[in-house]
Amino acid sequence: MIMGGKRLSGEVTISGAKNAAVAVIPAALLVEGTCRIENVPAIKDVDVIVDILRCLGARVKYIDGHCLEINCEKINGFSAPYEMTRKMRASYYLLGALLGRFHHAEVPPPGGCNFGTRPIDMHIKGFEALGAKVGIDKGVIEAHAVKLRAAQIYMDVASVGATINIMLAATRAEGTTIIENASKEPHVVDVANFLSAMGANVRGAGTDTIKINGVEKMGGGTYTIIPDQIEAGTFMIAAAATAGDVLVKNVIPKHLESLTAKLVEMNTSVEEYGDSIRVSRDGPLRKANVKTLPYPGFPTDLQPQIVTLLSAARGTSVITESVWDNRFQYVDELRRLGAKISVDGKLAVIEGVETLSGAPVKATDLRAGASMVIAGLMARGVTEIRELRHIDRGYEDLEAKLRALGAQIARRGDSEIKSIGEVV
Ligand code: EPU
Questions:
Q1: N or C terminus: which one in the chain shows less Cβ crowding within 10 Å?
Q2: pTM over 0.85
Q3: Residues classed as catalytic
Q4: Which domains does the chain show, CATH number per domain?
């Protein structure tokens, strides 16, 4: 529950990147020695992927809340249980990692946020190009290879998941694999850096072309996960939304350039430092048009949050969602707070209103949940948010971090309602 209208001010420290962590942790399956992984975010998706690894026989030890040691020398199965994989999208990385190391993987189709069809055809094409046979038997994706051989793979659509998955499998294939039209997202680069730190040979991540020289063995090492670009962006938008003044610490400002440019266009002040960004606003918010694109474009994972911000900006804004077919489901919830938004396919037209008014809403998925929190912070009165499990998948201590910035936000421990808190 949130009592809106409080200006956020102070400092917030951003956690490790969810979408890097959920790839790096299963990537440890490729490694014979021990991987020490630092700056791991304390979120539900990490708990799930750690549980899956343990279930496969990996030894996983928490050194502290944000540092893990994983040893996958002895693995006792190649089959991930459906009850676990259905909880998250990133379970598909088990396919690339198990296939790379053991030449065999059995993984049920992944779960995760629902925004239209989320195919994995490019992952499968990539594995097949490396010499694997991939099929579905009783609802389980089975990938098997007698031997993995390097290939040149062109991706029809730049896919983050397929780029990483092919990279995982190719680290242990014979020869040099080349991925063309690869995704360039910061977490693709982070996974490549992790793999190289563990003994793989990956070059070019962050550009259109990634080259992977297969190695016979990966021995282990220590790696620190990058800060979460999307969590940082969510706090930057929350600062702008409440006419606040917030120093967002432990970030890589370059990863946030597309958002920074939009916030400035909307009349927000953004100052960049080495590893922090200060966001503040005094004047009214101005309209802006936003188109989501693969990195370095504006991230789709900040689309619900920026739409929420624009819902109270002066003028009419147009948002084009060009990554996912159906990522405006949360708009119905925003309308409950008084937002004026019309949606036509992948386009949303937002007519800015003076203020939003608190109301009961639900989180329809992870980032939509974050946008409900931002809406609640902006709105007059009390907003109650249900289905917080979506938010818990990807944000570490969201309400504690916001409370430290002055937000009136709390979570009620009622297992039926599971709403953010008890305010006032
Ligand atoms: N696509 C295909 N075939 C494929 C794979 C993807 O057609 O085999 C299409 C998708 O339908 C989509 C586009 O390619 O239209 C991009 O999908 P991508 O594969 O890049 O998405 P993903 O790997 O499934 C990751 C993030 C998402 C984020 C997208 C786009 C993880 C675990 N998930 O998903 O993050 O929206 O990239 O940047 O890394 C989130 O964190 O809230 C989240 C949903």
A1: C
A2: yes
A3: 113
A4: 2-15+227-423 (3.65.10.10), 18-224 (3.65.10.10)
